[in-house]
Amino acid sequence: MPIALLQFPTDLIGDILTLCYPFELFILSDCSKKTRKLVKSKVTNKWKIQSIDSTSIDLKSGYIKKEYRFTIVEYPEFHYQQRTLMIGIGIYLMYPNEAVDELLKDVVEVFGCKSIRSIKSEDFEEDSEKFLDLCQAIIDLDLQVEHMDLNSYWYYDCRDFEELRDQMEKSKKINIVRP
């Protein structure tokens, strides 16, 4: 039997949301704009993005040791399936064209993340276009990146990356490590 969650007092809703896992909050925020706004108001500033690769984002809270991995899959039968990982728990999500930048925008919007601990360009070796889209999303969302490792050489040949790199270096929020 469905429960009319939005009809509860806001204090009680806040207590309920603090008991939820990030995956439950993320899925709940997909229900409507009102629930997304409610979830966002109750869980912001406690989550941090640990790392990003070409198909997944790892999220962690300061006081919880395990990580939560949001992974993009292309098969609908795996959508919203959860799995256990060595680092914590993972969930499969579907995004058009496996766009990790779109997933980043949703994760930042729902959890209010302001920073990313680490990004490695070598995780995007197969698809440099995704890396460029991700860099542009980071600039647009005004996120702080603690460590960006440009340990591969494909970006030297990429003219589109030069402009993005200059924008990222001008903002003192991104620490770029070169080989």
TrEMBL record:
InterPro entries: F-box_dom
Residue ranges of domain F-box in the record: 2-50
Protein name: F-box domain-containing protein
Classification of source organism: Eukaryota, Metazoa, Ecdysozoa, Nematoda, Chromadorea
Gene: Cnig_chr_I.g3675
